[in-house]
Amino acid sequence: MSEENTDSMDLITEVASKVGKVFKVIPAKVSSTEKKPVGAVINEPKSRFVNAREMKTNGRGIGLLRDMYEIFSPSGGEHAISVFITNWLIANGITPLMDSEGNIYAQNDVRGSKRIIINAHMDTVASAPAIIKVVRTKKDAILSSTNNQVIGADDKNGVWCVLRLLTDPEIDTPLTALICVSEESGCNGSQFAMDNHADYFDDCVFNITVDRRGDTDIINENFDITLCSNEMTDILNKWGKPWGLTTTQGSISDVSNIVERLEINGINLSAGYHNAHMGTEYTSMAELLKSYQFQKEILPKLHAHFMKNPKSVKFTDFQRITYPKSSYGIYDNAYYSGGCKAVYTSAGTGKPYGTKRSSGGHSEASVMDAFEEAIDDIDNVLGSNLLYYDFIDADYELSHSGKSLKILRAFELYPSSVATLEYYFTVSSNAARDAIIPVEQIMGYKAGQMVKGHLSNKGFSSIDGYDYSY
Fold first, then answer.
1. DSSP code per residue over 47-64
2. Which string of DSSP letters, residue by residue, matches 75-143?
3. Residues forming beta bridges with residue 121, ordered by sequence position
4. Distance between CA atoms of 69 and 151, rounded to whole angstroms?
5. Are residues 219 and 195 in the same domain?
6. Do residues 281 and 374 share a domain?
7. Residues 6 or more apart in contact with residue 347 via CB below 8 angstroms
8. Residue 54 and residue 176 in one domain
9. Contacts of 273 (CB under 8 A, 6+ apart)
10. Which domain holds residue 303?
11. Are 398 and 355 in contact (CB under 8 A)?
């Protein structure tokens, strides 16, 4: 697609200030090359050249978002996206700082105390560069990939918000930004920032991380710690109600490291992405813009609140929950690496699994423990993180009898991973296309052994022709 057409894809000239108004769509011509879907490519390159001189620094809408998606930036390989972000900030009047880990620090031009932190991460779990397409409807634009690669909306959508907020002339709230590396590998970038440069945030009173799927959630409690006081939670629910936003539980994000080290309140906001960590990941531009407008609305409110109530800045009642896991935990229906601590949640409820016994004598939490260990072992056998990547947003529940674990809609959403599980377990389906696995097989799984399969852990690289060795 030509540069002219790319610029025309800045979908929405001005976002409606209130949710519910119709977004204006600017149609754009689709080139003949974009009409042909590329499809899944097995042996895609793991890198793509980026010419720093040709990086655009004037994009603010879909053009900016698409430019970031097309820069391949896996955890540990964020250099190209960090160059893009720093160039963009400098061109737009902001002088950023960078630490030795690669985290980016910046402030907007508004002076004053009681600054608000805006945070996102630049790394993704992609295994190869994505080819981006944009599909328009009357009220939205959907960004996804044509080659079944993760586009990195988690969390370049958050980075998009941070860049826009820092340079938005309508914002008169003092802001401090932290754009992190290596969130996906265990929030290592934010931990480094807090361990070495926490003093940069000495005058900050609240943290907004923008790193949550969809457009309905204000995460006030992560799997590991409580992020907000009860007072702040009540205020946020009041502010969020007109926008269809409410406080709820979430999984892992950089906000935990930030608020705990600085002893302040914080949240993680929805960023309009869906199917994170999968080749089917996509962004709803309308949802992302809704999140951005909500952030703009609450920033001055937060600043005014803490100016009037300075004693409410300090927050230390994090109520840390400890469920140590061996390598990565399943929490809020998600996997992460790095020895995380996990709280298991029932599908769609956000509430921890109870201790009700199944007919086989196993608690819900113990079944999820065993399933996690099996997934960890299978990934080790495959020499990849395939199941970790594909099941990041899966929903789970036990059957009514307690004899089976259901991975909801797995045959539809994660067909390759289900095919892998079938080498290890008896996997059946139902009308909802759930993957159903007998609990006794999960509980009987032994690390390094195949319950049903016939795979070798030597020289294995693919199943059904799909390369899992990346």
1. -----GGG---S--SHHH
2. TT--HHHHHHHHHHHHHTT---EE-TT--EEEE-S---SSEEEEEEE--B--SSPPPEEEEE-SS-EEE
3. 180
4. 5
5. yes
6. no
7. 333, 395, 396, 397, 408
8. yes
9. 153, 154, 157, 213, 214, 281, 282, 283, 284, 288
10. 3-312
11. no
Nearest of 94, 98, 61, 93 to residue 81 by alpha carbon? 98
Residue 305: which residues within 8 A CB-CB, separation 6 or more? 235, 312
Asked, for residue 321, whether it belongs to a domain, the answer is: no
Q: How many domains does the chain have?
A: 2
Q: Per the domain annotation, does 15 fall within a domain? A: yes
Assigned token pair, 100? 């030795």
Give the number of other CB atoms < 10 A from CB of residue 364: 22
From 112, 432, 159, 455, select the one nearest 304 (Cα to Cα): 112
Residue 148 φ then ψ, to 5°: 55, 40
Let me know whether 279 and 412 are in one domain.
no
Q: Is the pTM of this model over 0.70?
A: no
- Other residues' Cβ atoms within 10 Å of the Cβ of residue 359: 11
Structure token pair of residue 5? 């057409």
Q: Are residues 374 and 450 in the same domain?
A: yes
3-state class (DSSP) for residue 343: coil
What token pair was written down for 112?
Answer: 């004053």
Length of the chain: 470
Dihedral of alpha carbons 196, 201, 207, 209, sign: negative
Q: Are residues 30 and 100 in the same domain?
A: yes
Which pair of tokens denotes residue 180?
Answer: 């992190």
Place of tokens 């009173």: 205
pLDDT digits (tens, 9 = 90+) for 379-424: 777 766 778 767 766 788 888 778 888 888 888 788 878 878 877 8
| Residue spans of the chain under pLDDT 70 | 1-44, 320-361, 383-384, 389, 392-393, 446-470
Judge if 83 and 216 occupy the same domain.
yes
Q: Assess whether 333 and 293 both reside in one domain.
A: no
Angle between helix 79-91 and 62-69 (nearest 10): 150
Contact predicate 155/271, CB 8 Å: yes
pLDDT, position 44: 62
Residue 322 covered by a domain = no
Alpha-carbon span 223 to 368, nearest angstrom: 15
In a domain? residue 320: no
Query: Of 264, 288, 312, which closes a domain?
Result: 312
